[in-house]
Amino acid sequence: MKSNKELLFQYAGFATQLLVGLGVFVYVGLWIDKYFFKSTPIFVWLLPLFLLISLIIKVIKDTSK
Hints:
The chain is an all-alpha fold. The protein has one domain (4-63). Helices cover 83% and strands 0% of the residues. The protein has helices at 4-36, 43-63. It is elongated and about 50 Å long.
């Protein structure tokens, strides 16, 4: 069993990973949409969605042990 301090750091790391990842993926999505697709924002929606799906899968795998 993990201590409360270890769980706090684990969740803080996950929150940081989520926020930084969303920021980076939105920025990259905006750049790709501006460079390739002038009128339709496709990647600004898809990249963060893929990140959220992958992080949810990671949480499910980590908590199912």
